[in-house]
Amino acid sequence: MTRLLLLFLAVLNARLSSAHGGLANYTVGETWYRGYDPDTPAEEQLGQPWMVQRSWASIDPIFSVTDAGLACNNPAVAPPSHIPIAAGDNLTAVYWYWLHPVGPMTVWLAACGDAPDDSCEGADVNALSFFKVWEGGLLDGTLAEGNWYQKSFQHWDGSPDLWPVMIPASLRPGAYVVRHEIMSLHIANKPQFYPECAHLTVTGTGDALPTDEKYYAKFPGAYSMSDPSINIDVYSDAMKNVTNYTIPGPPVWSG
Length: 255
Ligand SMILES: [Cu+2]
Prior knowledge:
Elements: H1 3-18, E1 25-28, E2 31-34, E3 83-86, E4 90-95, E5 105-113, E6 130-136, E7 138-140, E8 147-148, H2 149-152, E9 161-166, E10 174-184, E11 192-203, E12 216-217
Parallel strand pairs: 3-11
Antiparallel strand pairs: 1-2, 1-4, 4-9, 5-6, 5-10, 6-12, 7-8, 10-11
This protein binds copper (II) ion.
């Protein structure tokens, strides 16, 4: 094996042993956009002209529904750049690996402003109104043993785990924060939240945004520990035969 491959495996092994992770890169068509890497010194990444993702200091989950980092992880330092994407195109989130099998995955957008030169760099992510554009939950089977999207998007051959989601075709052009969240529910009554955010510049000819307040949520604020879909023990006897799961948060807005 080459030295580089050995190094890669050593790093991967070190990461897998902690059994957490996060969103590493984005692709639009054939173009890759590098995200923040918690294992690379912050000073080599923060403020770099190529950076498109809000920073996240570690691969550890957020455990509290009231954590300010529920919006865009911690510390969520804003990047200078935006990913250009046309409404109707796919944005693919790339994870080098993902290990947890249980819980929903969601994608959210929040508009940062309407000015022609608008940017999300100055946006307070805790004040933004997010709307959900995609969700994937329990595809079939039971809560504990069934096939969740979170399980189905994983590869176990070393190739990255890809999560493609279409930006609604009718979406109004402008700057948006895109928020990907994996909620992992494999530990009883102790949900884990893995949010990461990037900045988008959306182009297109549409002019749509959700008009009904029911679509909007803030982070923190969107979730509650009194939600039986969040404060849940999927391995309990009561849940043993349950084959449906209600994904927390507002309904999906599809444009
Ligand atoms: Cu983990």
